[in-house]
Write a structure and sequence with these properties.
homodimer; 346 residues; mainly alpha; 2 strands; globular
């Protein structure tokens, strides 16, 4: 059967889509949009209403928040809650909190990575300075934790603190990796699970708990969050190699910073001659021409295809996790999020 | 009456001391030491038992924690708790938490201030890097908040989050002040209340609440914490101008960084000709010779005496706050802490 898309990946996706809901992705997205639009409007309004203090720390935080972003993690809270009591004001407050924690990590990451751009604009640290950006991240964490405490759902403050600790340890592993190429695959998994998956898992759990789901349903959504997060990160890694991507970050910025993305993990395994160049890059940086050469070699050994396959594999597993949940619009919506996560260009 | 000390300040202190307990400071300190030694031994043991992970973030955190420090904030928790149920395991856990929050702020401050030394050793950021030092601070905050959540005293997680927010806003005011000399006195008060007093207040409240004190007793201890914190900061400011002080920081480091300490606030008011030099310092930094000249001028206009007077005034007010509390060894102990805080050289 020809599914009407002009790339194998889209065909594969449509195939998966068909197997799980008999709708093509475009129709699925339109349906998802209709179903959650009101929730998302409320969410955006609440995010926009985060207090705007007069200090530089507040300005730096809002510089990032006002750029928007995909709001995928709050969407996870919303959709998980829809299996139970729905996107109540408490659920919405938790959704805002997860976005604030995510934003806090971006503010800190951009300082650590000496990044210049974020979401198509100069990073907060460029406009307001590194110190303001660090304090802005701290402030958003505090605002998020206060919201979670106020929502008063048993164990959620503690589990968010555990997530933040996981993220910090993953950042630490990533720091220690800089300049090293050994053990790349093992550490890659560890870093992604800590830096990306942990917060997606929390978003799913928070939505599930606040809406009164059973322990089995919570566990299924937790697994969904893990695999969605991993798929999301793999696509992120792939986008670093896409010319003129829509992320608002510079292309090859991860490569320039010597971050061990999945394409690099694969390329190091497949093209041992690349190792020396990458060690050189990690130790002394690289010119734009040298970066382009490395990127070309990474592409040539099929590392981007392998990365796409990793993303697809995790997407598939996220769909499998959903099978433990009742069929209906909430499950359809999460399937759509998984399918769409592989199509994003930003 | 001659009180036997050879400086006016000590005489004044001994006078205050006499009025409040008829014991000289040395005897008071010996008595305090006997009374809380067992509590402090337990506290040190629990601080030493903070998990030692293998990552650079853990190493950076323990680099600071292992240097010790005065542990004045945990002592506040211990002494407040002694008005009620005593220094229970839960109270001890809160005492550890307040020290971890304090340590977190030092790790972040040293990055922001580009400080080289802390507690007589190279700062964590020098040994492990700025990124590790930032993450180490984040990690200690998380460990502290988890402890506070586990202690399960109503409202303490929320009040610590409010304190951290106050500290961040104060840091932000301080950042914005850099390079400016206007409004120094007003902002100085605001910064000290946020950066220093808020955490002392929390320490007193935490000890009071976990030990079951009345609301009136809690309020009195909160006031005590406010004024003890202010006195402590004023002495800190004074120590920046002391040659060969025992703080383990470089002398004049606050001045070099353009921090608006109280001696500078006073000097700007008393010696307008200093304004130009200080603006120059703030804008372009200063040579060691220029720093020494400014320090000399600050001393010459009596700014250090004024700073000492500010510290004494707050010390006095901390003693007054205690009058609402029952007389006994706990109150004696807090009086001693106030009196001793003016004598410290580190």
């Amino acid at each position: 059967m020809t599914l009407g898309f002009d790339t194998p990946v889209l065909n594969r996706l449509a195939h998966v889509s068909e197997a799980h809901g008999a709708l093509a992705l475009g129709d699925r997205l339109a349906s998802l949009d209709r179903w959650v639009r009101a929730d998302l409007v409320d969410l955006e309004a609440e995010l926009a209403a985060i207090p705007r203090g007069e200090r530089v720390v507040h300005l730096a935080a809002h510089h990032l928040l006002d750029r928007g972003g995909k709001h995928l993690r709050p969407l996870c809270v919303a959709l998980a809650s829809r299996f139970g009591d729905g996107f109540s004001p408490r659920a919405r407050s938790l959704a805002v909190a997860v976005e604030l924690v995510h934003s806090a990590t971006l503010l800190h990451d951009d300082v650590i990575d000496v990044a210049d751009r974020r979401r198509g604009e100069p990073a907060a640290r460029i406009v307001y300075g590194n110190a303001a950006s660090i304090f802005a991240g701290d402030w958003l964490l505090v605002v998020a934790l206060r919201r979670i405490a106020a929502a008063n759902v048993d164990g959620l403050v503690e589990s968010m603190l555990a997530v933040i600790e996981e993220m910090i340890v993953a950042e630490s592993v990533q720091l220690e990796r800089r300049g090293r190429v050994e053990g790349a695959r093992e550490d890659y998994t560890r870093i992604v699970e800590g830096k990306t998956c942990a917060l997606f898992r929390w978003a799913m759990q928070a939505g599930a708990r606040v809406a009164g789901l059973t322990a089995a349903e919570q566990a299924a959504l937790d697994r969904y969050g893990l695999h969605l997060g991993f798929a999301f990160q793999a696509v992120d890694d792939e986008l670093d190699f896409a010319e003129g991507n829509g992320t608002g970050k510079d292309p090859l910025v991860d490569l320039r910073e010597g971050k061990m993305t999945y394409p690099l993990v694969v390329a190091l395994e497949r093209d041992p001659s690349l190792k020396e160049r990458i060690v050189g890059l990690l130790e002394a940086g690289a010119s734009d021409a040298e970066l382009a050469t490395i990127a070309q070699r990474v592409r040539a050994c099929g590392a981007l295809t392998a990365t796409r396959r990793l993303a697809e594999d995790h997407m598939q597993r996220s769909l499998e996790a959903l099978s433990a949940l009742p069929a209906g619009p909430a499950r359809d919506a999460l399937e759509t999020v998984s399918l769409a996560s592989l199509q994003r260009t930003s």
